[in-house]
Amino acid sequence: MHPVTAEVTQRIVERSRETRADYLARMEAARHSGPGRAKLSCANWAHAFAAVGEGDKQRMRDPTAPNVAIVSAYNDMLSAHQPLERYPEIIKRAAREVGGTAQYAGGVPAMCDGVTQGRPGMELSLFSRDVIAMSTAIALSHDAFDAALMLGICDKIVPGLVMGALTFGHLPTIFVPGGPMTSGISNAEKARVRGLYAEGKATREELLDSEMKSYHGPGTCTFYGTANSNQMMMEMIGLHLPGSAFVQPNTPLREALVAAAPKRAIEIRDGGNDYIPMSAVVDEKSIVNALAGLMATGGSTNHTLHLIAMAAAAGIKITWEDFDDLSQVTPLIARVYPNGSEDVNAFHAAGGMAYVTRQLLDAGLAHDDVMTVAGRGLRRYQQEPFLQDGELVWKEGTAVSLNPDILRPVSDPFQPTGGTRLVQGNLGRAVFKTSAVKPQHRIIEAPALVFDDQEELLAAHKRGELARDFVAIVRFQGPKANGMPELHSLTPPLGVQLDKGFQVALVTDGRMSGASGKVPAAIHVTPEAADGGPLAYIQNGDIVRLDADAGTLEVKVPREELFSRPRAQCPPSGFGMGRELFGWMRQAAGPADAGACALFEAA
Fold it and tell me: Which domains, from first to last, does the chain contain?
């Protein structure tokens, strides 16, 4: 192992010793209690399968016959989740083939951040993760299952499913992805039209036509944002069947992988020959593997929140320092839009996750000695699935990149460090995505322009007030203030000024989209302004220095002077669009560097 990877892993183990031991003890107790159906009264158990077909009903009369839970985030508004509509029937047929049954145990909500960007609904987005976790627990609470399948793909959905499923970590659990849509217009063309629209040089009709050519069919959006970073992490953690992340939907190979999931789940159930509970898969080493994959591929900054919360659900404590230290030794070996010009389909064709896994293992930057749903060892994930004479088989993936503009070996990376950096100073702690920002834009020192919401900045842009060097401070966007919405709609106007040659950066206690890039940004600033953080005291004209290379975030104002100023007051929380229902979550939310979680203390 690389010495830094080994050291970070060991300190996570030490930091998590008590909470991890407590979690594992609870999972072992749940295992020994057995599936609840063996303890239910006949009336209780009859309720659980009253509506199933006669064949399944006869199997389910046997309390020892394996029964698999399906928890799905299907809806047909999300292109990524629309293919999930057909999965339950595929899964049920496959379970019957091996003497088991499968039941749709429950659905979880799934909102599309692409639809809610810049809209009030975005203020529900982050907390939807915690709602999904609770919904997953409700689905599994019937205690009638030997294993579980999680059907979900996008931003908050996979993290929420992981968090909820880990509370039933004694169950073997496999995540079943849907795959990316086919490629549309080039990302460069999409970005060009967005920029023209931000400058008033393209009409709304032209913009909509461009966007429809990009987002055009079933499957996950093809840029490397949070949704596709989720799929990468499920491979690195070992919760997918190997190589299943980026196989396109509605293809024979994808359907074969869907059918294989319940069969494997039944194989690894308690009482079978190869019991592999989720609690054994998600451990300290597999979390480090997810971190390594995130850094090596330039994955979404949203996972500096989500991965902390996911790990905490398994009793594991990770910090932004762990992200930063691993980023310093894990080179960036993938360039996928917005960190490059090509999409995830091109990434998959160039070697994809099999290549990335092999590179990280060979360099000692990831742990091979982990348990996965496919068995022991992450080396299994350097294989790819194929159909051979109609049968699903796995073969070794390519050992060389098939497109060095997209994938490179660790020995010749795109940059020597990973995609994310911790920046900190007298303005607090924040995250900076280095993989998407050109080196010449990673250091900026300029006067602050302070905004209390994104609408104020957009209005200033329309008035022509941003044609200068500045650092945009967009505050009161943290979890306690308004639920920490993504601020992706700020990328085009800020990018316009960057393209004009001005020094421009964003500093915010909010989030940016996992697809954001180009504009240098210190995001997730904590303590947030609503919690009395330094952003609540900064004023227009203060000189701010953001240096991603040195890892610093500072305002050139003495601490005594800064905190002697009147504290800006957080605007009242919005109402409408369901926001009033989430007041308790805003109050309960932890800080960004602890996962911004309302359900439990994450770090």
Answer: 3-33+66-182+217-396 (no CATH), 420-571 (3.50.30.80)
